Amino acid sequence: MNPSWLEPRQWFEALQGLESLERLFDAGGSVLVMIALVAAVLFSLALERWWYFRVTHQRERRALVNYWAARRDHVSWSALTLRDVWSRALSRRLRRPLPWLKLLVGICPLLGLLGTVTGMIAVFDSLSLNEVNQARAMADGVARATLPTLAGMAVAVVGLLFTTRLEHIIRREDQKLQDRMARAVEETHA
């Protein structure tokens, strides 16, 4: 029995979409599947970071500012060192997946290049072995060469945009944390 929110025509269209995806993976070869897996991990990490920033980091920052404001000593060397250590620990938790994100962004164009090379090898193989149906074999090889390149570059560009935005947010959050800690101390002494 179909769920009430999907009509049979919509199910049929969804199945056709899956067939299109299957044809895309057939045309792109195994390298395109690897790029899809890397993209899934990359976007999962990005989604996790977005969730962490929106929910957990805001709460931890508020708790740290309140804890700092509740202290009696704000000016001694040990207090300032402790504040610096706490701030760095909070920032480090926000930065934690950044090296992995950068690695995955760097891998995507290389996988695309691998797809190009394997596709060109398939083209030359088919040209040397099969003289009867050269146009079809050549078209398959060119598709196998260009689709992974396109997919790898597209995933890398989106991942690079996210990584750059995350670095900007981390710098802004560091500054915001320092400002709020200083303001909390001023309000406590006022």
UniProtKB/TrEMBL annotation:
Compartments reported by the entry: Cell membrane; Membrane
InterPro entries, from UniProt? Answer: ExbB/TolQ_transport, MotA_ExbB_proton_chnl
Descriptive protein name? MotA/TolQ/ExbB proton channel family protein
PANTHER family linked: PROTEIN TOLQ (PTHR30625), TONB2 ENERGY TRANSDUCTION SYSTEM INNER MEMBRANE COMPONENT EXBB (PTHR30625:SF18)
Keyword Repeat set for record = no
- Superkingdom, natural source: Bacteria
Q: Which GO terms describe its biological process?
A: protein import
- Keyword tags: Cell membrane, Membrane, Protein transport, Transmembrane, Transmembrane helix, Transport
The record's family statement is: Belongs to the exbB/tolQ family.
- The keyword Transmembrane appears for this protein: yes
Record's GO cellular component, any one?
plasma membrane
Please give the start and end residues of each transmembrane region: 31-52, 100-122, 142-162
- Outline the extent of the MotA/TolQ/ExbB proton channel domain: 88-178
Q: How the protein sits in the membrane?
A: Multi-pass membrane protein
